[in-house]
C-alpha cells in the first residue's frame, strides 16, 4: 500500500494514507512508509497525515510509539498543559481567543525534542490550525544585522516565576524542593535566585542559530521574539511593569550582549516567520509530524471545542547542533 502526497501553496506537505481497515492496519502501513515520511520531513520540515483511524488518546499513543519510540521529557514548563499519561499532553490549555506565536519547542533547554507529533481528536468549528514555519526560510528572510547579532551573541532568556502572573516554579520544574531546582539549574547552565517572597528568577544564554544534526542546514532556532516583552498585550505589559518593574516581567529576552529586542526587531522577526508559514485546518484523526529543529509551530485562535494532543520524542542535544554560541548561565537581575 502506498500513500498519496499533496503539495499545495500555503499548506504543509500532506500524506494521505491508503484505505485501511483498522488501527493495526494503519500502523503496519506507517511502518512501511517510515523512510518516506522521514524524507518528507527533511525536505519540508513538517508533514500532515490524513486518513488514519486515530480516535482517542490510546490510538494516538500507539502511533506515537511507532513514530517517536524515544520520548523527550517536557522540561522547564512554560504553558499550562493537561497530562493524559504515557507522555501524551494537550497541545496547550491557553484561552481559545489567544494566538500562540511560532516557536521551536524547548529551544531554551540543553536537550530538546527533535520530533513533535500532534493529533486532532476533536476539530474546532473555526480556526485553531497549528501553523508551521520552515526555520531555514525564516533565517534567509531576516535582516542581515539581526542574523549577525544572533550568530555572534546568541540570545538571553530571563524568567520570573510566580503563582500570580506566570507559571510557578513548582509547576515549571516539577518539584517542591528549592534545592532540587538549584541542582537542575546548575546542571543546565541556568542562573537562579530567590527573592524575599520565595519567588524564583532565572537567566540563561542560548544559541539562536544552530545546524540540523542530520542535514547540517542552518536554522533560526530560539524563543527570542516569542518571549519578548513586546509580544505581551500593551495593556498587560504596562500593568506588569508598573507593578513589578521592567526586571520583574514573567519573561523577557535580549541578545546575548545585553540589548533587549526592540519593537522594530520584533516586527522583522514576525514578518520572517509569517513569510515561511503554512497551515491546514484540522480534521478529526489528522496528525502533524514536525521536525522541531527545521520547523517552528504555533496556534491560531479558534471557536468551538478543540482537542489537540501532542507527544515529544527523538531528543537532541544542543551540542550536536553546531551552536554558534556556547550555552551559558545568564545574569539574574534583582527586583525593581
TrEMBL record:
<dbReference type="InterPro" id="IPR050411">
    <property type="entry name" value="AlphaKG_dependent_hydroxylases"/>
</dbReference>
<protein>
    <submittedName>
        <fullName>TauD/TfdA family dioxygenase</fullName>
        <ecNumber>1.14.11.-</ecNumber>
    </submittedName>
</protein>
<keyword id="KW-0223">Dioxygenase</keyword>
<dbReference type="InterPro" id="IPR003819">
    <property type="entry name" value="TauD/TfdA-like"/>
</dbReference>
<keyword id="KW-0408">Iron</keyword>
<feature type="domain" description="TauD/TfdA-like">
    <location>
        <begin position="20"/>
        <end position="310"/>
    </location>
</feature>
<keyword id="KW-0560">Oxidoreductase</keyword>
<keyword id="KW-0045">Antibiotic biosynthesis</keyword>
<dbReference type="GO" id="GO:0017000">
    <property type="term" value="P:antibiotic biosynthetic process"/>
</dbReference>
<dbReference type="Pfam" id="PF02668">
    <property type="entry name" value="TauD"/>
</dbReference>
<dbReference type="GO" id="GO:0051213">
    <property type="term" value="F:dioxygenase activity"/>
</dbReference>
<dbReference type="InterPro" id="IPR042098">
    <property type="entry name" value="TauD-like_sf"/>
</dbReference>
Amino acid at each position: 500500500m502506498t500513500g498519496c502526497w499533496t503539495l499545495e501553496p500555503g499548506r504543509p506537505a500532506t500524506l494521505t494514507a491508503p484505505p485501511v481497515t483498522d488501527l493495526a492496519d494503519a500502523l503496519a502501513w506507517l511502518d512501511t512508509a517510515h523512510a518516506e515520511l522521514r524524507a518528507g520531513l527533511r525536505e519540508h520540515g513538517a508533514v500532515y497525515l490524513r486518513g488514519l483511524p486515530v480516535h482517542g488518546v490510546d490510538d494516538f499513543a500507539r502511533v506515537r510509539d511507532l513514530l517517536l519510540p524515544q520520548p523527550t521529557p517536557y522540561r522547564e514548563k512554560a504553558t499550562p498543559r493537561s497530562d493524559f499519561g504515557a507522555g501524551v499532553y494537550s497541545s496547550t490549555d491557553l484561552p481559545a481567543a489567544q494566538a500562540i506565536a511560532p516557536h521551536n519547542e524547548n529551544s531554551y533547554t540543553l536537550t530538546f525534542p527533535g520530533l513533535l507529533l500532534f493529533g486532532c481528536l476533536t476539530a474546532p468549528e473555526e480556526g485553531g490550525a497549528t501553523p508551521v514555519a520552515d526555520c531555514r526560510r525564516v533565517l534567509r528572510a531576516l535582516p542581515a544585522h539581526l542574523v549577525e547579532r544572533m550568530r555572534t551573541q546568541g540570545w538571553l532568556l530571563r524568567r520570573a516565576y510566580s503563582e500570580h502572573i506566570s507559571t510557578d516554579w513548582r509547576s515549571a520544574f516539577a518539584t517542591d524542593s528549592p534545592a532540587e531546582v538549584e541542582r537542575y539549574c546548575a546542571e543546565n547552565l541556568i542562573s537562579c535566585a530567590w527573592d524575599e517572597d520565595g519567588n524564583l528568577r532565572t537567566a540563561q544564554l542560548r544559541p539562536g542559530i544552530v545546524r540540523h544534526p542530520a542535514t547540517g542546514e542552518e536554522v533560526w532556532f530560539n524563543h527570542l521574539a516569542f518571549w519578548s516583552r513586546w509580544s505581551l498585550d500593551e495593556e498587560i505589559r504596562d500593568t506588569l511593569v508598573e507593578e513589578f518593574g521592567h526586571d520583574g516581567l514573567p519573561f523577557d529576552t535580549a541578545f546575548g550582549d545585553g540589548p533587549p529586542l526592540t519593537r522594530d526587531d520584533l516586527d522583522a522577526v514576525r514578518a520572517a516567520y509569517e513569510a515561511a508559514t503554512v497551515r491546514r485546518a484540522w480534521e478529526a484523526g489528522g496528525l502533524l509530524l514536525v521536525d522541531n529543529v527545521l520547523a517552528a509551530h504555533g496556534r491560531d485562535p479558534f471557536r468551538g471545542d478543540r482537542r489537540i494532543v501532542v507527544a515529544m520524542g527523538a531528543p537532541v542535544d544542543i551540542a550536536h547542533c553546531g551552536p554558534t554560541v556556547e550555552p551559558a548561565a545568564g545574569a539574574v537581575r534583582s527586583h525593581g
